[in-house]
Design a protein that fits this description.
CATH topology: Rossmann fold
CATH architecture: 3-Layer(aba) Sandwich
Largest sheet: 5 strands, mixed
CATH class: Alpha Beta
Order of helices and strands: EEHEHEHEHH
Number of helices: 5
Oligomer: single chain
Length: 165
């Protein structure tokens, strides 16, 4: 094999109703390295991927003071990162919230935050905030897993904090 590919699916998405849709057609292609704007907004940008996309949508509905306030970007791929889409969003919103399931320390969100602070700092009206898993191993028990992984309420709190900054 000269060019191997590793594709990882999130096991938690298998239990979700919103993940059981049919493909648009047999030739459906996902643009590699191109983020998708899930929801347009003008006051805050949420950068996320995987299962956290849906939790971010729920949190935005709960926390938004008005419709169209929160933009949600689904990165879809982490390498390459589509930072151009993120930068364009930050030009409008000036606020960045990165939501992901990996540990907060040394996770991909830390790298994204570093790129934002290095390349888009002048666009920011507040601090870059991250919501991520606690720095412990993910438990096998579903109840304990909820205590470690980011929940909608955690995202709502971060949104509220950034919107009030």
């Amino acid at each position: 094999m000269d060019d191997p590919v590793l594709f990882m699916e999130h096991k938690g998405l298998y239990r979700q109703g919103y993940c059981s849709t049919a493909e648009p057609d047999e030739n459906y292609l996902l643009p590699f390295g191109k983020a998708r704007i899930v929801q347009k907004g003008s006051e805050l940008t949420i950068v996320t991927w995987g299962a956290m996309v849906h939790k971010s949508i729920d949190a935005a509905k709960e926390a938004a003071s008005k419709p169209g306030a929160i933009e949600i970007i689904d990165l879809r791929t982490l390498n390459p990162l589509d930072m151009e889409t993120v930068g364009t969003s930050l030009e409008k919103t000036g606020r960045a919230l990165i939501v992901y399931e990996d540990n907060i320390t040394n996770g991909p969100g830390a790298e994204i935050a570093a790129i934002i602070s290095q390349d888009y700092f002048e666009l920011l009206d507040g601090p870059i905030k991250r919501v991520a898993a606690k720095d412990v191993p993910i438990p096998f028990n579903w109840y304990l897993e909820e205590k470690v992984l980011p929940q909608t309420s955690d995202i709502v709190s971060a949104i509220t904090e950034l919107m009030e900054y």
